[in-house]
Design a protein that fits this description.
7% of the residues lie in helices and 44% in strands. By secondary structure, it is mainly beta.
Length: 350
C-alpha cells in the first residue's frame, strides 16, 4: 500500500508543470490545497538527500556582498523520496546544526547540516519526514487541513502556524513528530480577516531581553487591512496586541526571524510573470514593534533572477562557526521538477 501511495504522489509531482516565473506554480499551489494528501502511518520516512554546492550566489560573477549580507555558501538539495520538498519554515537547535522544518504538505522534516573545514555548507544528513497529526491525533487527507507555514522552537514546545484552517498549535518537544498538539494559542487576528491562502505565514520568537520579552509575533502573507497593510500581532507579553506591516505590492511575507538585538527580519518573496522571481529581507527596528503601529524598515538584502534563488519561504538566524550572526534561507519547490530546494547562508554585516 505504501509503495502504491508513494507512486501516486510521485505521479502528481511530475505532473506539476509550474515554471520558475511562478505563474503555473501559483495555479498548481492553489489546486493542491484541495487535493488529498498521501496516507502514511505516523512513522518517520528516511529521506537521503543529495547536495550540490553552489560556487557563488550570482549566476555569473564573483560578488560576495549583497546589501548588508555576505554570501557564505549554499546548496541545491534533492532526494528520491517523493515527500521531500515544499519547505515552508526552518528552525535550528541551539547547536546551529540540527534543525526542524515544516512542509506545507503537512509533514515534519528533521536533519542536520554538515560543514567543511572552512565552515561552509556541504551537505544535509539524517533527514527524516513524518506526517503531522491534528488535534484528534489523525493524519488529515487534505492539504488544506495541515497547511503548515510558520514555525518556532521554544522551551519544550514546537509551535506551528497554519493557513486554510487558521490556527497556531503547540506540540511537545521532544516528541512533536509523533504527537497531537497539546494546546492552541489565540492568534488575535480575526480568522475572517485572514485570506485562505495568505494567512499567518511568518511566526517569530522575540529574544527574552528585547522589548517584547520573548513574545511570539505573527505576520500574515497577504491578508491586509483597509489601508492595504499586512495584518500582524504580538501574541503575548506586556505589548500584546495587533499591528500592521507596510506592504509592497510585488512582495509577500513568507517568514520572519528575530536578531539578537530584538530587530525583526521579514523574508519576502516575489513570484510573478511581469517581474520574475525575487527575494528580499526587511529589518524592522525593535523599538517600533508595538500594538497599533504600522511597521516598516529598510531592505537589507534583495535579489532577483540574476542570482541563485528560487521560491524562498523559510528563514532562521543562527550563530555561525565564526561566531557572527548568520541567516539561513530555504526554498519551497512546490514539488515541481522545474523548481529547486535550496539552502542559502549569509553573514550579517553590520
Amino acid at each position: 500500500m505504501r509503495d502504491k501511495q508513494r507512486t501516486q504522489y510521485t505521479d502528481s509531482k511530475t505532473k506539476n508543470t509550474a515554471s520558475l516565473t511562478g505563474v503555473l506554480a501559483t495555479l498548481v499551489a492553489g489546486v493542491a490545497l484541495f487535493m488529498p494528501l498521501p496516507v502514511f502511518a505516523a512513522n518517520s520516512v528516511d529521506a537521503p538527500v543529495s547536495a550540490r554546492v553552489l560556487q557563488g550566489f550570482k549566476v555569473s560573477g564573483k560578488e560576495t556582498r549583497f546589501g548588508k549580507l555576505d554570501f557564505v555558501g549554499g546548496l541545491v538539495l534533492s532526494s528520491r523520496e517523493p515527500l521531500f520538498g515544499a519547505m515552508s519554515s526552518i528552525r535550528f537547535r541551539p547547536d546551529g546544526r540540527n534543525f526542524v522544518a515544516v512542509l506545507d504538505t503537512g509533514h515534519w522534516l528533521t536533519g542536520q547540516i554538515q560543514r567543511d573545514t572552512n565552515g561552509k555548507l556541504v551537505s544535509v544528513t539524517g533527514v527524516k519526514i513524518t506526517p503531522m497529526l491534528d488535534a484528534a491525533g489523525r493524519e488529515p487527507h487534505r492539504k488544506m487541513e495541515m497547511d503548515a507555514e510558520g514555525l518556532v522552537l521554544r522551551d519544550g514546545q514546537v509551535i506551528v502556524s497554519y493557513e486554510q484552517r487558521h490556527r497556531i498549535d503547540v506540540y511537545p518537544d521532544p516528541g512533536f513528530a509523533t504527537s497531537r498538539p497539546v494546546k492552541r494559542i489565540p492568534h488575535l487576528i480575526p480568522s475572517g480577516e485572514l485570506r485562505a491562502n495568505g494567512g499567518m505565514e511568518a511566526l517569530g520568537l522575540s529574544p527574552a531581553n528585547s522589548p517584547l520579552q520573548g513574545a511570539l509575533v505573527v505576520v500574515a502573507e497577504k491578508s491586509i487591512d483597509e489601508d492595504g497593510n499586512l495584518l500582524g500581532a504580538i501574541l503575548e507579553g506586556p505589548l500584546k496586541g495587533a499591528f500592521t506591516v507596510s506592504r509592497h505590492p510585488s512582495f509577500d511575507v513568507t517568514d520572519s526571524a528575530f536578531l539578537p538585538d530584538g530587530d525583526l527580519l521579514l523574508l519576502e518573496r516575489r513570484f510573478n510573470l511581469a517581474e520574475g522571481v525575487g527575494v528580499r529581507i526587511r529589518r524592522i527596528p525593535a523599538a517600533t514593534i508595538k500594538p497599533g503601529a504600522v511597521l516598516d524598515g529598510p531592505v537589507i538584502f534583495e535579489a532577483g533572477m540574476e542570482s541563485q534563488i528560487d521560491n524562498m519561504e523559510g528563514m532562521d538566524v543562527i550563530a555561525g562557526p565564526d561566531d557572527a550572526t548568520h541567516i539561513i534561507l530555504v526554498s519551497d519547490d512546490n514539488h515541481s521538477f522545474l523548481q529547486r530546494n535550496m539552502m542559502l547562508e549569509f553573514r550579517l554585516n553590520e
